[in-house]
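Fig. S4 source data, part A: sequence.
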Amino acid sequence: AQPFIIMTAVILSLGGAFLGLTVLNSPFGIIMTGVGVISLAGVVVNNGIVLIDYINKLRQRGYELREAVAAGGATRLRPVLLTAVTTILGLLPMVTGVSFDFHNLTISWVSESSQWWRSMAIVVIFGLLVATFLTLVVVPVLYVFIEEGKGRLAAFRSKARSYIPGSSVAED
């Protein structure tokens, strides 16, 4: 169930990636957009795994479900935000086309290489904006929903078995 949560966040973050291409009227280049999507998926998966792993560790220490999710989200807030902000700030020159010529010590606003990398940077930036929200809000909500659903399902199965003639509640 936990890999499902992470993959859901990856799929939903693609909405932000394609929104960015649409808003900035950037062409959908298969190669560079694909590289951006793969990069985005890597960051989203990493953030999701670290958050869920920390929540699982808190639960092993005896925290209740909702308490572990709240504490895990609060603890992982800063690392997730720092990852997103530093990545976005690092990619802004690619989107804007700013480049620095070290030979002539000049700054130019349009470079040939920035046009090539622009769609990748747009996908990663907008995807990260959406993915950061997803990691901090949607992943914990899905975690609670699925874990509470497991408990309800187990209780339902136990109750249903008690109505079946010849079965005992202790059987699995």
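Fig. S4 source data, part B ends here. The chain has a mean pLDDT of 88.
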